[in-house]
Amino acid sequence: SQKIEQNSEALNIQEGKTATLTCNYTNYSPAYLQWYRQDPGRGPVFLLLIRENEKEKRKERLKVTFDTTLKQSLFHITASQPADSATYLCAPADTGRRALTFGSGTRLQVQP
Amino acid sequence: GAVVSQHPSWVICKSGTSVKIECRSLDFQATTMFWYRQFPKQSLMLMATSNEGSKATYEQGVEKDKFLINHASLTLSTLTVTSAHPEDSSFYICSARDQGTSVGTQYFGPGTRLTVL
Predict the structure, then answer these.
(1) With contact defined as beta carbons under 8 Å apart, do B97 and B30 qualify?
(2) Residue A9: other Cβ atoms inside 10 A
(3) Of A23, A46, A48, which to mutate for an interface test with B (greatest number of B Cβ within 10 Å)?
(4) What is the phi-psi region of residue A55: left when phi exceeds 0, alpha when psi lies from -120 to 50, beta otherwise?
(5) Residue B46 · residue B62 · CB < 8 Å
(6) Which residue among A62, A85, B4, B10 has its CA within the 20 to 30 Å range from the CA of A36?
């Protein structure tokens, strides 16, 4: 069955450092992968989408990589800030027509 | 960016009553919307796919008679929890697929916290 794995443990880092979150998937052949941020009591907010033919995508302090051989995506936040503290969700998808399935998410805590 | 709204943001109701939650895409059209439920410290679980002008498709284990979905226009889908019970208390989140993007990026509403007493 399809599986999406994200670090279940919370990630604690110091302000200013780079946070790296991992998303591994099995039994998927995604055409693209999306990353979302979710704050407590709120719906997910779309951050970045990377396609299977893209190795890397950047948006401001965010960078996403996509390795279809390793079946893995890495999500980086550079110069992290306490305001980046949230749960980050990844969602691989093979088509835009179906609903997204999410990993359990990784909770990031940036310490001032 | 695309905006999806939900109303109400929270609701408290008595057991046995029905509650309607609205999901609107504010600046784009969405032939497809999705309804999710999320319990504390868990990931989002898809409940149903709402298609404009046709019947919703429900995930296994979700009672269609209990969770009524109506997608009457390209910008509005509603979820009605009928005869709500305390075990229906949860965080309900909708998402809408932006037809204007090539891959149909999904945008989520802010969620509705339902508490059934």
Answers:
(1) yes
(2) 8
(3) A46
(4) alpha
(5) no
(6) B10
Mutate to test the interface with B, among A3, A100, A101 (most CBs of B within 10 A): A100
Q: Which pLDDT tens digit goes with each residue over A58-81?
A: 999 999 999 999 999 999 999 999
Strand order in the sheet with A86-93: A11-14, A106-111, A86-93, A32-38, A45-51
The residues in A 38-97 lying below 8 A from B, measured between CB atoms, are 41-46, 49, 51, 89, 93, 96-97
Confidence of residue B94 (pLDDT cuts 50, 70, 90): very high
Residue type, position A5, single letter = E
Q: How far is Cα B59 from Cα B69, in angstroms, rounded to an integer?
A: 13
Bridge partners of A35, per DSSP, are A48, A90
Half-sphere exposure of A73 (CA within 13 A, CB side): 36
